[in-house]
Amino acid sequence: MLLVTAAWLWFFWWYLRGSGWPRQTAESRRRDLRGESLPGRVWGWALLAGSLGIASTLAMGFVTLRLANVSHEAFAAPVNFSNYPKGTVVCAIACISATAGVVEEAGFRGYMLSPVQRRHGWTAAILISGFMFFLDHHFSHGYATFAFLPLFLAISAVHGLVVKCSGSIRPSVVLHSVADFFVIPILYGLVESFSVVPISQTGFDSPIGICIVLLIIFGLAAVLPFKRLATAV
């Protein structure tokens, strides 16, 4: 499973980076992917800034869960993972996460963001690609109601800033894949359950308060690494 996934993702990346036929589109494929290699110093700041930004959005996600009035059934896994050995489940989640990281970053922060950015600038490009990123999940995931639109825009803003400051989607591919690898088991209830009881029923409680505090702390902590990233390139 892992080898097959790795092989087709390699071919996917190989083609989008400008290899293969037709040669007339090679340069535009390479340019719009934004898949350039980066020096180690840029990688370090990109991963630090992006990790703090993603941590802030994860806290925002758990706050949104308590505001959106979404049932646990909306997070049901597409397959019954209890029928498979743990090793198979881990491999499957790893394949899902890696595929999402590569394909979605190439699509949304690469091929969609690039032409919009050239014509309308970074703000419009991040917002438009972020909205389409939300719609993609809205039509394919039961939980992604319009209450989650701000969350998806925030996630897209983090990835968009990483791409803008670093000049490459490579750090975002890693960040996206790693985040999904840890979040998917929680959403599917494979690790532990999480509360989706609306705050309107429970009132303001400690879990929601902790998530708000973490959202702010991680968000503020990401500011300086992003500034360092912007000057590291």
Order of helices and strands: HHHHHHHHHH
Structural class: mainly alpha
Q: Report the end-to-end length measured between terminal Cα atoms.
A: 37 Å
Count of all domains? 1
The number of strands is 0
The radius of gyration computed from the alpha-carbon positions, rounded to a whole number of angstroms, is: 18 Å
Largest sheet: none
Shape: globular
Number of helices: 10
Mean pLDDT, to the nearest integer, reads: 95
Short description:
Helices cover 73% and strands 0% of the residues. It is an all-alpha fold.
Mind explaining what this structure looks like?
With 233 residues, the protein is mostly helical. The chain has one domain. The protein contains ten helices and no strands. The protein is globular. The protein starts with a helix and ends with a helix. The model has no long low-confidence stretch (mean pLDDT 95).
